[in-house]
Amino acid sequence: MPFRPGIHGSSTAVETDSTALWRKRKYSRDRICTGCYLKKNGRYVTLCPSIPGNCDMQTPDAFSRAESAARFLLTQTPLKPRLGLVLGSGLGSFADELSEAVRVPYTAIPFFPRATAVGHAGQMVLGRVDEVAVAAMQGRVHLYEGYSAVEVAFPVRVFGRMGIPAVILTNAAGGINLEYKQGALVVIKDHINLQGQNPLVGPNDDRFGERFPDMTQAYSKQYREIARRAAERLGKNLSEGVYAALAGPSYETPAEIRYLRTIGADLVGMSTTPEVIAARHMGIAVLAISCVTNMAAGILDKPLSYLEVFETAERVRGDFVALLKAIIADIAADIQP
Ligand code: HPA
Q: How far apart are CA 30 and CA 202, in angstroms?
């Protein structure tokens, strides 16, 4: 297993002969000892304090890691967040709208993965949207950055351990359905997971949830209806669609898009499904919204570019913020303690 600097929240790790030897012997994705997370200058770093090869500390399991991160975040704010938000590519600016905001870089949160993708700021903003206390992630991590599905789903598990009962996940997606226009906001009603990974693979930890979680109502019908009504009030069009998740990072070929359309996909993207699966495993209610930042490969006679993704996300920023605010106001009644 190659050493992946900073993957568990370290940005200041320094290689020394002894740490290099230690990681060679000790490092593996699921064999990190608690002592490897030392707080140095306010950040968690991954230097093991023990003599190389002699580290006998216990590995914290995924549940304990989520619990540590959750407790840490709850010490950063007097608020008790009731809603988790994951703000995808170019959509992070919603978190700038929060009142009573506290910003916590992912690098400061124990065990939290670092966001490396363009347009993903990599900080958690704890604050309020009107009366509702929220925890908003400005940026997420993806499989294509080299993270496992377990790591990608970790932040949602942290939300769960913070006592958060509902999440709104957002993403940038390619439009497969020809009725969509670039810039459209689409509520996800179901997904097709083609990422070849699932965050629940491995021994089941019953503290998160049961072995075989039901996915027939993965995307809350009630919240989808709330989103539809909120859009109606704003005089905006809001479609629903099926999201196909691929690992990326290459965009799809036109043949792959034709295939995805044939199997029933309306949207395509590289995120969200691991988070949804982990959320449903924990019984967290999910609403997910895609911004169609581009029409999928082969639909228009031009190549795809991530610049177009960000330009479109920036263009719809106002509509997106207004819709999220309206939805959160309506969801509030359901999630207040
Ligand atoms: N494909 C996959 N992911 C994406 C796309 C796309 O066309 N647009 C934004 N994210």
A: 12
Ligand 1 atom closest to the Cα of residue 252 is 1
Query: Ligand 1 atom closest to Cα of 296?
Result: 7
User: Do 268 and 243 meet the contact criterion of CB atoms below 8 Å apart?
Assistant: yes
pLDDT tens for each residue of 280-327: 999 999 999 999 999 999 999 889 988 888 889 889 988 999 999 999
CA distance 171 to 88: 4
Residue nearest to atom 5 of ligand 1 (CA): 174
Model pLDDT for residues 161-182, shown as the tens digit of each residue = 999 999 999 999 999 999 999 9
- What separation in angstroms does the CA of 283 have from each of 27, 64, 133, 217? 32, 18, 20, 11
The tokens describing 34, both together, are 């608690």
* Closest CA to ligand 1's atom 9: 173
The three-point CA angle 245-249-250 to 5° equals 100
Question: Running DSSP on this structure, what letter comes out for residue 247?
Answer: -
Q: Which CATH number fits domain 59-335: 3.30.70.20, 3.40.50.1580, 2.40.170.20, 3.40.605.10?
A: 3.40.50.1580
The DSSP letter of residue 114 is P
pTM above 0.70? yes
Whose CA is closest to atom 6 on ligand 1? 174
Phi, psi of 335 (to 5 degrees): -110, -5
* 230-255 tens-digit pLDDT: 999 999 989 999 999 999 999 999 99
Cα of 267 vs centre of ligand 1, distance in Å, is: 8
pLDDT in the model for residue 333: 84
Rounded to whole angstroms, the Cα distance separating 83 from 130 reads: 12
> Domain spans of the chain?
1-58, 59-335
Residue closest via CA to ligand 1's atom 3 equals 269
Residue list, ligand 1 pocket, CB within 6 Å:
172-174, 251-252, 268-270, 293-294, 296, 304, 309
Nearest CA to ligand 1 atom 10: 173
Phi and psi, residue 83, nearest 5°: -140, 135
Centre of ligand 1 from the C-alpha of residue 304, in Å: 8
